[in-house]
Structure formats: C-alpha cells, structure tokens
Design a protein that fits this description.
This protein is α+β, with helices and mostly antiparallel strands and 401 residues long. The protein has ten helices and five strands.
Length: 401
C-alpha cells in the first residue's frame, strides 16, 4: 500500500485571521493610493498601485504558515519583501514580514532560533557599513537602521520570548516533578508509619496475649482449683498490662505534636522488668546485660523490642529449659542474643503468625544492622538444639539518648 504524501499541518485560526486582516488592509491602502514610494520614484521598476498586490498576497500566504511551517514561510516572505522593493511598496507587506520573522524564531527549530538573530544582526551591520563606505553620506546609515528594524529587531524579540517560554516550561516541569516526588514521599511515609505502628502493636500486645492464651488453656485442661486460680491470676495481670500497652498505643496514634517516640517508649532500663514478667509467665530466663552508657534511644528501643519478641516466641514455642538473654555493648555496636531450647513442651502452645520475626528484622534493618534467627546446635554432650536470635545494631559515634 502506497504511503500518503505528507501534508502541512492545518493553519492556526489566529494566523488565518492575521493573513486576512493584512491582505484586506494592504488592498485598502492600494485602493486609496497610499504606497511607501511615489510613482516613478527611486528603485521603482513597476509603476502603478496594483503590482503591489502580488508581494502583498504572497506575504499574506506566509502569515498563514507562520506557526505551522516557519521554515517555509520565512524564505517566501523574504522573496516577497524583495519583490516589494521593485514596486511602489506597501507598508502592510513590511509589517507582515516583521511578524513572519518574529514567528520564525519563536516557532522554528532551536537551531533556527539561534541562527536567525545572528544572521539578521550581521546583515544590519553590513547594511550600515557598506553603503556608508561607498557613498560617504550620513543618509546611507538609515539603510542599516531600516534593516535592523525590519529584520534584527523582530528576530531578537522572538528569541527573547522563546527563551522566556522555555524557562517557564522548564519551571513548570520542575514543579510537576517536585509535586510527583512529594506525593511519592508522602506515600512512602504513610507506608513506613503503618509498618511502624504494626510493629508497635504486635510487640506491645503479643507477649501479654500469648501468656493469656497459654494460661487459659492450662486452666481449662487441668482440674486443680489452685492451678486454675494461679492461671487466672496470671491472665488478669497480663490483661491489665496489655490494656495499658493498648492505651499507650492509642496515645501515640492520637498524638499530633509530631513527637514520633513519646516519653513512655521502653528502653533497656526496663529489661529486668521484662525478664521478671517472662518468669512470672512460666519461663526460666537468665539475663546478661552490659549496655554501657550513651546508647542512642532508637538502638535501645529496638534492642528492647527484639528481646521482648524473642521472649514471647519462647513462651509460645520453647521446650523445657532455660532461655538465655544477652545484651552486650561492643565497640561500635550493640549485640543482642536470645537463645531458647527447642523440643516438645509439656504445656499448651499458642499459635504464631511469623510477624514477630518480620518485625525484628525490620527494626534491625532500619538501623542498618544485621539480624538472623534459626536453630543452632549446642556444645553440650546431649547435643541439644536451641533456637537463637542474633541482632547487631550499630551505634553511631557521638549519639546519645
């Protein structure tokens, strides 16, 4: 199938109105006998008013193409202007030529926009210097002035307007990109905040609810009244503590002061109380804590939450034996290790979702630390397997709580 021949774009309605206005106005001037030069004047080769209409009509056609095809319009307009010089001339033809020159710079290619002002400037200089050098009369300087007004001035104006438009387009594009980046940052901030609140909710409540689930199962499965009362006491204690943690979380959500971590946020100073709570829930726990001084608050809170979640997992899944907790300050990091025995447990289990491991890993990653969790073989003769959680949280120099 043969390709269709390319067509010029449809002229802009405003350009058509300019062309019609110029053609009608120029014809009106010809009708009343007004021309640039008198009949039989210097340079007039074709006398009479009506030959002026030929370059006028060509120039009007160039006005139609001024926006859609400036590379075609400017050469044709130049030819029409030269033809107009051999007639009595029309002021409308000259005015329309300046508009075509302006449009060629404004709507043309970037290369044309750079070259046309330079070329018209050189022509204006030559039109000033050469006639004056030949005839040595001051009147010849007007040739260069006229050339500058007709050619260089509209070209320079077009270049200035084009530069302003390009600067405005670039500023608008930067504003759109800035708005897009701001929206992306907002969405990421919302996602990060939701993840943070999910970690807080899980770490605050999971420990108490796990203890409640385990002790309520024990109370239901055993017929001893004393054991049931002890289990109910533990259930009540964990319910009260869980309710307090939930109230704290609600306070965080309702706080509009911009304080991301309220004063009640847990620190490593609360490790002893955390371990005592685990022991009260039935875990055998040993604690080795050497945190040093000047520990950054985010590091301390992350370490506390990792220990808290590890003890919660041990309460739900660990076998008989002792859970060891070690929080030791190194030279440039804080090492957290929690090891609990694996194996069959005598009491009931609480279900797990795996969100705890995800939350611990996220806390370590946010601080550019490392996290790993998995089974490890112990060194004792029984070759017992332990589930060990290890986290290394960097401590930046100069930071403190």
């Amino acid at each position: 199938m043969a390709a269709r021949p390319s067509r010029l774009p449809r002229p802009h309605p405003f350009d058509v109105r300019i062309a019609l206005g110029g053609l009608i106005g120029g014809a009106a001037l010809v009708a009343v006998g007004l021309g640039v030069r008198p009949e039989g004047g210097l340079g007039v080769l074709v006398d009479g008013p009506w030959p002026v209409l030929v370059p006028l009509a060509v120039m009007a056609g160039c006005e139609v193409l001024r926006r859609t095809a400036p590379a075609v319009a400017l050469p044709l307009a130049t030819v029409a202007l030269v033809l107009d010089q051999f007639t009595q001339g029309s002021l409308v033809t000259i005015v329309m030529f300046t508009d075509v020159m302006y449009a060629a710079v404004l709507y043309g290619t970037p290369a044309a926009a750079r070259r046309i002002p330079w070329i018209t400037g050189m022509l204006s200089v030559l039109a000033t210097v050469v006639p004056f050098a030949l005839w040595r009369t001051p009147e010849t300087l007007l040739i260069g002035v006229a050339t500058g007004i007709v050619a260089f001035a509209p070209a320079s104006t077009g270049l200035i307007v084009r530069n302003h438009r390009e600067a405005a387009d670039a500023a608008r594009l930067r504003a759109e990109q800035t708005a897009l980046l701001a929206e992306m940052d907002r969405r990421q901030a919302v996602i990060a905040e939701r993840a943070r609140m999910a970690r807080e909710l899980h770490d605050m409540v999971a420990n108490h609810l796990s203890a409640i689930a385990i002790h309520s199962s024990a109370a239901l499965s055993l017929g001893d009244d004393q054991t049931s009362r002890d289990a109910l006491a533990v259930i009540r204690e964990n319910s009260v503590e869980g309710l307090a943690e939930m109230r704290r979380l609600i306070g965080i959500l309702r706080d509009d002061s911009g304080d991301r971590e309220p004063a009640a946020a847990p620190t490593l100073d609360g490790l002893d109380a955390l371990v005592e709570s685990a022991r009260a829930n039935g875990l055998a726990v040993t604690l080795d804590a050497d945190c040093g001084e000047g520990l950054p608050a985010p590091v301390g809170m992350a370490a506390y939450r990792i220990v808290q979640e590890s003890l919660t997992n041990a309460l739900k899944h660990a076998g008989p034996g002792t859970v060891t907790v070690a929080v030791v300050r190194r030279r440039d990091s804080l090492a957290v290790t929690v090891s609990s025995p694996c194996g069959d447990r005598d009491g009931p289990r609480a279900p797990g979702s795996g969100a705890g491991l995800v939350g611990m890993r996220e806390r370590a990653t946010l601080l550019h630390g490392t996290f790993e969790a998995g089974p490890e073989e112990s060194g004792d003769p029984a070759r017992r397997t332990f589930w060990t959680v290890r986290a290394s949280l960097p401590v930046a120099e100069g930071e403190s709580e």
